[in-house]
Amino acid sequence: MDIWLPYVYHYGVGGAVFVASLVTLIAAGAIRPAEPEDRRLLAAMIGGLALFMAGHALWITLATT
Questions:
Q1: Per the structure, how many domains does the chain have?
Q2: Which of 13, 25, 52, 61 could cross-link with 31 by S-S, CB 3.0 to 4.6 Å?
Q3: pTM attached to this predicted model
Q4: Distance CA 4, CA 25 (A)
């Protein structure tokens, strides 16, 4: 479990900053979820983070087995 603590910290704290940034952007009107282009941008950002997290988890798993 010790090997996963940095991963949890990295994506826990980083994820909180990511979500806070998205909330700030939406509240400021810089990103409008009602617009199709902005929805695609949000999906790309969230999907990119999820893909990176999955790849990182796979990398840790393969390195420790």
A1: 1
A2: 25
A3: 0.85
A4: 31
